[in-house]
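User: I'm curious what two different proteins look like when written out as structure tokens. Can you demonstrate?

Assistant: Sure. I'll show them one after the other, since each token string lines up with its own sequence. Here's the first protein:
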Amino acid sequence: MERIIVNPNKIKKAEIVVGIPSYKEEDSIGFVISKVDEGLTKYFSRKDAVIINVDNNSPDNTKDVFLTSNTKTPKIYISTPPGVKGKGRNIRNLFEAGVELGAKAIVMVDADLKSITGEWIQYLAEPLYMGYDYVIPIYVRHKYDGTITNNITYPLTRVLYGLRTRQPIAGDFGFSGRLARAYLTEKSWSDVVSEFGIDIWMTTIAMARGFNVCQAFLGAPKAHRAKDPSAHLGPMFFQVVGTVFQLAVDFEFIWKELEESRPTSIFGFGLGVKENPPEVKVNVENLYKSFIEGEKKYGSFWQKVVAPINLEEILKIKEMKIPEVDVPADLWARILFDYIVAYRDEQKDRVELLNSLIPLYYIRTLSFVNHTTDMDTKAAEEYLEAECRIMEGEKYYLISKWNQTPRKDGLPSIAQYLGE
């Protein structure tokens, strides 16, 4: 892909690279740049470093703010061509730049962060010098910040790939130059990966391809533009969940052989960190209303996708009041597994298939809110951990349904190859 590059210092080589993906972030990127520079100067002063803004040709002053920011670390601006957007395209430019510069360690952080410190750079980069290839952050988040993570990406990645990575779509990661080269050779790159599917794609590829993965506690609650989980999801849901499902199809040969998950190594520490992440308010009435309206719109779709016994259980919610709504973890797991198999076989209308999952996701979110409304962050995390263990226990259902449902794409399953 054509790139627009501004390299004022003519940098041709760097051992450590920090990338900041952006689109219209003139009001926030300056603070992030200052903290990135602070971290590089304090912890990696003996290494050749560069800060790269990978941008979508922002129509505001993002580029100017980046290039004119006062830093000790040299900077490079890289943009997609005018009219070409997508976070994944920005990050692919970061992969390419990191490889071209010969970087051993590459870190990426969101451009809208309000809580980033210089220590974030230390904790995301140091494990890369200790033999790890991929570093996923752990930070304190409000219990309702990241409901796609809590209800879909976190439980499914541990069920499918056997690693407990709490924030698999965090947006802030560290990865080795070796892994960056591997990303560039992957055949599973797609249009949705080029946009919001990129984070879960990176995490899944790192796990599925056997790279060394760890987590790093960043020592501060993540503060950015948090959203009410009942608000309109836009294309993000389709792109993220669609990527999860597609990779499940691609890596069938891996997840069928894994029986349980295991924790990863964790770097960093949380001494003195206060649990005061920005509050996320949830409109529970909207969540419930979306489910009721979703049943009217997608009821016939659900009958084709969700197993009758599972559909019967979820539709009982129509008779419940909002505070009574409960979607048990085992039922939610089986519904997600029904959708994975349906996604495998649906070749024409996958967008509509994933849209039909949204009302079910909303009612599962409402169930999570009902169970955790009086819990603090720690208690909510313990509750989620117990839910994920229950979901892991339902993996037999996915494998059984996957093997017993005839594929509609004309390809034989692994079970057929093995004569099972």
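Here's a second, unrelated protein for contrast:
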Amino acid sequence: MTRDISELLVDQSGVVSRRQAQAVGLADHEIRRLVRRHAWTPVHPGVYADHTGPLTWVQRAWAAVLVAGPGAALAGRSALRAIEGPGSALARRDPDPIVVAVPSARTPVAPAGVELRRVTKLGAQVQWHRAPPRQRLEHAAIWVAAEAATDLEALAVIAGLVQTRRTTAQRLHACLGERQRTRRGVWLAAVLDDIAEGACSMLEHGYLTRVERAHGLPSAVRQVRAQATLGMTYRDASYGDLVVELDGRLFHDTARQRDRDLDRDLDAAVEGLRTVRIGYGQVFDRACVTAARIAVLLHRRGWAGRPTPCGPTCAVSLAA
């Protein structure tokens, strides 16, 4: 076997196409001999792995890109899976088909386990130097958010990426603006505007839109940087001396995190601040009741305004 093909197999996690093998000098009869000796195993037509065991996700991804032919790249959820790596939540869905984008002028046939999408102006969306080539994070995220089954799932995708600082709301907004048509595009643009204001998690966005805005509460200052005993911290929503901390179970379910939360609440109390903690139930199941109670706390601190009911049966009306 030539040194060139060995290096190619290393670069591509042990997966190679017949076209690539021929390009570095292997003849068809040599490829057939490698398959016959079980040195190479067919994965898709014209694509081989250099072992006979189960394929890793990365090997499946390489095989999908190679079988799709020139100009192909991982896209959508598969691009995000490649970017986030084996420790991501997406890694738990490895059996999902590998999603591959190809230029719109091409019409390859998708083999089993591969989902092909034709994309206009694909070249500008792809990081070709990555292994395997993949859509840029922002393009993949907008794609996945647009195709999510629910708005909450879409919000979880983009908010999660911003919250972990993998991208910014501004970059996602710019990417969205480059697309001619996007499912729930207007909604996504509005959500990204909110996230840019500081509502950087699904729970925070829900509080902003369902509790605060929907009931005419004053606008909080979000993600307020504060020095705490255990280091720098950020307060989710601050109304002067009232602090609202939004506790999503995803980020606050360990003993260590709970300890840090209690410590920062104690720091806030030392500063003369009142802290209340709100979770998913208060925001998504009982938003009106929550708004009414936040309004009471604000009135006790000097707010002269009045909350507005979001409908005829709103708890804010009943409280008034």
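A detail about the second structure: DSSP finds 14 helices and twelve strands in the chain.
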